Amino acid sequence: MTQVGRRVPSALAPDPSPEVVNADEFVMKKLLLVAVLSFPLLSPAQDMLAVGYARYVYSLDSGNGQAVLAGFGLLGQAGLARDGAGTLWSTGYTAAAGGPTYYLTRIEASNGLVIPMFVTPPFRSLASDVGTSLFGLVDATPADVLRRIDTTTGQSVVVGSLGIANALAITVRQGQLYGWDSALGLVTIDATTGHATDVNPAVAGP
Hints:
Helices cover 3% and strands 48% of the residues. It has one helix and 18 strands. A hairpin with a 6-residue loop joins strand 17 and strand 18.
């Protein structure tokens, strides 16, 4: 089954002047930084990027951990990944009476600007893939689902079921797709079928 992405009208772009939030206050309150990527942003010292569930985009200094507010995205940012073309992507939603609408968003590394691009399924996490593709994790019943996303169109195609129901995040390391399951812990994921395998079944729990 294919989900056809719908391009977002410019009217849905984030408010250019939302409330200002102090970076230190953000960290002290321990609001979730859901993903971090190494990437030159704003200044040489700020060499990492983080997105938070509560809309914030931060640049980080990997040497001392200093966080600097770089921009604002959408609510529910729950993933951050770079496609093979080097573009940064995240997720988020807008709330409405009829329920939330979920988006794939592009992040400009030079200034932290977040641009909603396509209406998508509710991706829980993103991971890098080759070319202009990404992997996306979708919470589903009876088992979570892996999808492959075309970032030029917003279209996503089901790769397959993970066979597990508690996957929280995915990432790629040295060409291997991994996931984190709240019941099993670390799992490998077959990028051609979506099937997840516990890396060490002898160890109970995460």
